[in-house]
Amino acid sequence: MTRLQITWTVAKDWEGKLLREFLKVEKKLSKRALADIKFAGGSLFVNGETATVRKTLQSGDEVTIVFPPETRSESILLEPIALDILFEDDHFLVINKPAGMPTIPSRDHLSGTLANGVLYYYDQKGISSTFHAVNRLDRDTSGIVVIAKHRFAHDLMAKEQKAGQIHREYIAIIHGQLMTEKGTIQAPIGRKSDSIIEREVRSDGQEAITHYTVLLQRDEETVVRVKLETGRTHQIRVHFASIGHPLLGDDLYGGERKKIDRQALHSYYCSFIHPFTYENITIEAKVPLDMQSWLT
After folding, report:
1. Where among 27, 48, 66 does a domain terminate?
2. Which pairing describes strands 132-133 and 142-148: parallel, antiparallel, or unpaired?
3. φ and ψ at residue 20, rounded to 5 degrees
4. CA distances from 252 to 40, 151, 175, 245, 292 (A)
5. Percentage of the chain surpassing pLDDT 90?
6. Which of 5, 38, 58, 132 could make an S-S bridge to 148, C-beta 3.0–4.6 Å?
7. Cα→Cα distances 196→135, 193, 295, Å
8. Segment (H or E) for 76
9. Residues known to be catalytic
């Protein structure tokens, strides 16, 4: 299996400073990541020679980290599942997940999940990593899932996510017609007291903010583009149900399945700053066939 390694060139600003500070401050390695490198089989090199975090750096030095192998859960089965890959490099794998596929295994779905397929794919490519989903989608929601290929990439993306620097947009089809072309639903969401799955708008819930723009109006349905300011479980589904416009097909929250057999929700757009190359990565996933008839 291929071990992940990353090399950086030390800029003049870091001359005379310790390798530890360069890694923690400039490259944002967590304490856990540094501990893993030291105690779990990783390595540090400066100009090709083994180094410790107490090494004093010079301008132009080449700093290389070889990350330790990651331990996978033995409970995740490896399965040859077709993956619709939208983007891939050494650090990330972005997949267009179909409706009906869970992101990770659960007691009720031990196989057929995105994680099962990705780990099989990793083995075929010789990638020694476990499954690090940057975002998750409900089983019956289709669209973009960003997966980090190693723990360090996942840590950096978690920081971006917390800072609101990862932008996602969705297409949803809702029952009825909205009164305004644009709007914001701001209502706290929490777990419903008598359910382990269902959420609801409740005063003691977590802050949740959903922005929407109407794309098309039909006699009985409306197509909306949705942008989340927060990322609560079932947020889009709960928010639209709370204003009397549940998603088509979402029978958990009051939608009907006469015209589509799952909630009509697709994550079609994602953009983020690549934490290693600093490029602006923009990805789009085509709306699936079961939703396309409402868009024409």
Report:
1. 66
2. antiparallel
3. -55, -45
4. 45, 34, 14, 13, 23
5. 75
6. 132
7. 20, 8, 34
8. none
9. 138
